[in-house]
Amino acid sequence: RMRRACKAAAQTLEKLGKLVRPGITTEELDAVAHEEAISRGAYPSTLNYHGYPKSLCTSVNEVICHGIPDSRALEEGDIVNLDVTLYLDGMHGDCSATYLVGKVDESARKLVETTYECMMKGIAAVKPGRPISDIGRAIQTLADQHGYGVVRAYCGHGIGERFHTGLQIPHYFEEEATTRMAPGMIFTVEPMITVGSWDYDQWKDGWTAVTADRSLTAQFEHTVLVTDDGVEILTLP
């Protein structure tokens, strides 16, 4: 069941990514995400979650996460993170990716590429018997090499029948994250990497988080399963 939910989310994200271009609004992407979920017999997990009003999170440029789709058109040179979570067969599947809108400058491209690498380094650190802190250590080590910040206010989370369980996955090295990974654990790895400060502000809407210095930020996310000898990425299309 979990594999089905994750695959449906990944396929929805893949479809949305192909629509990203200058001129499209995040609201239009949200409408497609909603239709895609319903057509798969799923429900968009974010819709009405603690009052969140949309079926998709769309975070543009300095928005770290939880950006609410609106009527603003994407512009050439923007980057946008699309975060899709679907509830299917009683399980939540969660994934996100950052897309380039038309031609972007070199610093934006490098940030997006490195953020993807950070996620994959974090996932590669998932091993049964090892502490959760290994994930953040791997991500932060790579981000530090590029002089990037790692957002600390938001982290990965356990997921399954519940959208967010009590399990937290910091993306920076957190010594106190001593929980040992064990086969069967399912959680997200979703680093948010910034060109500047890792600190954040929140908009008055109560959702939208932006970098404190308004610098560019990117994010990628997979839902993963700890296996007997390593890790399986569940959110592959």
Describe the fold and architecture.
The chain is of the alpha+beta class. It is 27% helix and 25% strand. It contains 4 helices and 15 strands. The strands form 5 sheets. Strands 1, 2, 4 and 5 form a 4-stranded antiparallel sheet that branches. A 3-stranded antiparallel sheet has the order 3-12-11, with no helix packed on it. A hairpin with a 6-residue loop joins strand 11 (200-202) and strand 12 (209-211). The longest helix is centred in the middle third of the chain and has 19 residues, at 106-124. The chain is globular and about 50 Å long. The model has no long low-confidence stretch (mean pLDDT 95).
Query: How would you describe the shape?
Result: globular
Uncertain runs are: none
Global structural class: alpha+beta
Count of alpha and pi helical runs: 4
The helix content is 25-40%
Radius of gyration: 17 Å
Q: Spell out the helices and strands N to C.
A: HHEEEEEHHEEEEEEEEEE
Number of strands: 15
Distance between the termini: 15 Å
Largest sheet: 4 strands, antiparallel
**Mean pLDDT level:** 95
Beta percentage is 15-25%
